[in-house]
Amino acid sequence: MSFLKAIADNRVAGSLATRMRRRRFAFFLSLLTRVKRPITILDVGGTQDFWVMMGQEAIGDAHITLLNLTAQPVSGRRFTSVAGDARDLSLYGDASFDVVFSNSVIEHLGPAFADQQRMAHEIRRVAKRYFVQTPNRYFPIEPHFLTPGFQFLPVEARVWLLSHFRLGWYDRIPDKRDAKREVESIALLSEKQVRKLFPAAEIYKEKIAGITKSFVAYHGWESA
Question: Does the pTM exceed 0.85?
Answer without folding.
Answer: yes
